[in-house]
């Protein structure tokens, strides 16, 4: 079908910039997706630190000193809050994205979420033990 000769205008639905603010589900979704920006930037900061570590003690110490500025500390606080919010919302979303069956019955959401929090606590504790 060739639409180049058609005199009809295609229907284009108007999409306002604040469409996601009108529904709480979409607002939460957009905020969760927005937190991934901070998670990504923080990952780049950590990779930059690894690069400086490979370059030697002096380069790594310079990177550590740059992290002690008020702007860097503020960014870390915001990034921590964004990471915690992102993790919380993803843990709540995971049972919907990953449906687990036990026989013919669907495993309830609550145990899946609890297992994720327990795994997070165990891995965090192991990292603290290794680092300390």
UniProtKB/TrEMBL annotation:
What keywords tag this UniProt record?
Cell membrane, Membrane, Transmembrane, Transmembrane helix
Q: How does it assemble?
A: Part of an enzyme complex containing four subunits: a flavoprotein (FrdA), an iron-sulfur protein (FrdB), and two hydrophobic anchor proteins (FrdC and FrdD).
Q: Where are the transmembrane segments?
A: 29-51, 71-91, 112-131
Q: Where in the cell is it found?
A: Cell membrane
Membrane topology term: Multi-pass membrane protein
Entry superkingdom: Bacteria
Entry's InterPro entries? Fumarate_red_C, SQR/QFR_C/D
Task: State the species of origin.
Answer: Aeromonas molluscorum 848
The protein in question is named Fumarate reductase subunit C
What are the GO MF terms of this UniProt record?
succinate dehydrogenase activity
User: What family is it from?
Assistant: Belongs to the FrdC family.
What HAMAP family does its record include? Answer: Fumarate_red_C (MF_00708)
Gene Ontology cellular component terms for the protein in this record? fumarate reductase complex; plasma membrane
Question: What does the record give as the function of this protein?
Answer: Anchors the catalytic components of the fumarate reductase complex to the cell membrane, binds quinones.
């Amino acid at each position: 079908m060739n639409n180049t000769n058609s005199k009809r205008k295609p229907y284009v639905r108007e999409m306002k910039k604040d469409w996601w603010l009108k529904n709480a589900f979409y607002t939460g979704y957009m905020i969760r997706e927005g937190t991934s920006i901070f998670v990504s930037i923080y990952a780049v900061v950590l990779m930059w630190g690894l690069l400086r570590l490979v370059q030697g003690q002096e380069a790594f110490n310079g990177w550590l000193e740059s992290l002690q500025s008020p702007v860097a500390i503020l960014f870390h606080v915001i990034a921590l809050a964004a990471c915690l919010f992102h993790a919380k919302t993803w843990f709540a979303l995971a049972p919907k994205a990953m449906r687990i069956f036990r026989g013919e019955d669907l495993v309830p959401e609550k145990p899946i979420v609890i297992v994720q929090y327990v795994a997070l606590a165990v891995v965090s504790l192991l990292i603290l033990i290794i680092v300390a």
